Amino acid sequence: MGTVIGMRDFLCRRCGQRLSFENSLCLHCTSALGFWLDTRSIHVLDEAGRVEVDGQLLERCMNTQVAQCNWLVPWTGIPTLCASCRLTRTRPGDWDQVALPAYGQAEAAKRRVILELAELGLPIRGRDEDPVNGLAFDLLSSAHEPVVTGHANGVITLDLAEDDDVHREAMRVELAEPYRTVLGHFRHEIGHYYQLVLIDDARRPGFEEHFGNPDLDYQAALDRHYSEGAPRGWEQTYVSSYATMHPAEDFAETFAHYLHIRDTLDTAAAFAMAPSGSTLDSVLPGDVGFDRLIEWWLPLTWSLNQINRSMGHPDLYPFVLPKPVLAKIRFVHNLVAPAE
After folding, report:
1. Is the dihedral of CA 218, 141, 230, 233 positive or negative?
2. How far apart are CA 128 and CA 130, in angstroms?
3. DSSP string, 171-216
4. Percent of the chain with pLDDT over 70
5. Which end of the chain has fewer CB atoms < 10 Å from its terminal CB, N or C?
6. What region, left, alpha or beta, does residue 247 occupy, with left being phi > 0 and alpha being psi -120 to 50 degrees?
7. In this prediction, what percent of the chain has a pLDDT beyond 90?
8. Cα gap 284→336, rounded to integer Å
9. Per residue in 207-221, pLDDT tens?
10. Rounded Cα distance, 254 and 248, in Å
């Protein structure tokens, strides 16, 4: 197994150089690297581009070039897609040299989300397992056709224009959003998917208590939101103005924030910026675990925001979490990590 500290601080097994989750090459010893999801570890590849892990011969995903993918797959003699790349149903053609770089960056953000979902033990069923509601991604460029980022029955669509900093910042300002990233889009849209997966008849009353009736007319809510905006005082009960639009959007925004919290705390713990007990593999389930998460999260985000201000940047985490919002995030935590 690879050397991992807190699942976020990776080390090169050949020279000990610190690595990023996205590294495909060690910049110190120039070793080719690959990430193996099963063990959540980074390995050094041999000259043939392979490595043996726990008796299994592995090689890089076939999207190494086109999507800068550094994930490993079992060697079969036939090029194979990794667990993340095979969830992508539609992508730009190899001829589209404008959209392909943005596609590669989007896949990098998606791999981080898939890793976190695996760490949390959430079910990931692709379209091959569930042709009707299985998870799939359409990564499309609006340079060629209209593209609306969103979710429908397990299919997540992303406009690759979101990878362009100028376009994304313009949209953020136009929509008065404090935060807008490709990773954030994926986390929000995956929240819609897990509403389908996790909210059954037994959990629906709790969902309605916190978010409202998910069967409310979505188009009417959409029209109202963009014509009237968020209601006055929304900051007291919602994590974002967009969350006020519809119960499904409130849940998706809340789910995304839960993923923000868990991933950031795990990374912070790896670098001794948060207690070691705050990592994904050590947080207690249920309400006790959630209370501890928030005890760690609030001072961490305060300090990170102050550091950003010291560098003249906007707050890293530009959100406020009043009690009603924390109750919603607690609900998500108890979906993901229910008390035993």
Report:
1. positive
2. 6
3. HHHHTT-S---HHHHHHHHHHHHHHHHH--TTTHHHHHHHH--TTS
4. 93
5. C
6. alpha
7. 80
8. 12
9. 999 999 999 999 999
10. 10
Q: What's the count of helices (H) and strands (E) in the chain, helices before strands?
A: 8, 12
Task: Determine the Cα–Cα distance for residues 248 and 265; give it in Å rounded to an integer.
Answer: 26
| Residue 163 reports pLDDT greater than 90 | no
Res 6: pLDDT: 40
* Per-residue b or e along 232-242, where b marks 16 or more CB atoms closer than 10 Å to that residue's CB: eeeeebbbbbb
Residue 37 corresponds to which tokens in the numbers above?
């999801």
The amino acid at residue 39 is: T
What's the confidence (pLDDT) of residue 273?
86
Of 240, 205, 260, the C-alpha closest to 319 is 240
Run of H or E including 287? helix 286-310
Instruction: Write down how long the chain is.
Output: 340
Report which of 39, 43, 21, 40 is spatially closest to residue 31, judged by C-alpha positions.
43
Q: Which amino acid is at 281?
A: D
35 and 42 Cβ atoms separated by less than 8 Å:
yes
Read off the amino acid at residue 320: V
CA atoms of 285 and 299, how far apart (whole Å): 21
* CA distances (Å), origin 9, targets 17, 199, 269, 301: 11, 34, 9, 20
CA 186-21-138 angle, to 5 degrees, is 30
95 and 128 Cβ atoms separated by less than 8 Å: no
Residue among 109, 108, 2, 107 at smallest CA distance from 45: 2
Q: Residues 57-73: what's their mean pLDDT?
A: 96
